[in-house]
């Protein structure tokens, strides 16, 4: 295994955190945010949202390690699954922002996404 400088890992982790912020907050439209949470007709909005994550991961891959372009598909699948799980749990429990459990669920969702991004960083630097 080739040693990777700490600053490289840190820089790539910062890029992936920024990617997550862009896709989850700046690029996510109202249609995506509301649609992906629904009981019906959620597939397209959720696919568009997870697709924005995948597109940005592809952009990072093409700069960092083009042969790992397929990691964008991994990001899509994980983001899709995590967000769908959060939507199902949120709907079944009926948690609202006034309840701490709502924020626990939201925080767990963001934790899983952050860990995914760290996993992608590891993949970019070790595969």
Give your account of this protein's structure:
The structure is a single chain. By secondary structure, the chain is an all-alpha fold. Helices cover 78% and strands 0% of the residues. The protein contains five helices and no strands. Helix 1 crosses helix 5 and helix 4 runs antiparallel to helix 5. The longest helix has 27 residues.
Average pLDDT metric: 96
Q: Which range does the strand content fall in?
A: under 5%
Query: What is the number of E strands?
Result: 0
The shape is globular
Radius of gyration: 16 Å
Q: How many H/I helical runs?
A: 5
What's the story with the biggest beta sheet? none
Q: What key phrases describe this protein's structure?
A:
127 residues, mainly alpha, 0% strand
What's the structural blueprint in terms of helices and strands?
Layout: H1 6-26, H2 30-35, H3 43-64, H4 71-93, H5 100-126
Helix pairs in contact: 1-3, 1-5, 3-4, 4-5
Please outline what is shown here.
Helix 4 (71-93) packs antiparallel against helix 5. The chain is built from 5 helices and no strands. The chain is globular, with a radius of gyration of 16 Å.
């Amino acid at each position: 295994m080739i040693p990777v400088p700490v600053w490289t890992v840190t820089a790539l982790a910062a890029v992936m955190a920024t990617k997550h912020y862009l896709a989850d907050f700046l690029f996510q439209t109202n249609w995506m945010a509301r649609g992906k949470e629904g009981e019906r007709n959620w597939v397209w909005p959720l696919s568009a949202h997870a697709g924005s994550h995948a597109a940005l991961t592809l952009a990072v891959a093409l700069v960092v390690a083009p042969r790992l372009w397929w990691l964008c598909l991994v990001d899509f699948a994980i983001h899709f699954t995590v967000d769908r799980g959060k939507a199902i749990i949120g709907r079944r429990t009926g948690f609202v922002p006034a309840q701490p459990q709502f924020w626990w669920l939201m925080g767990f969702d963001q934790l899983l996404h952050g860990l995914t991004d760290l996993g992608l960083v590891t993949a970019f630097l070790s595969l």
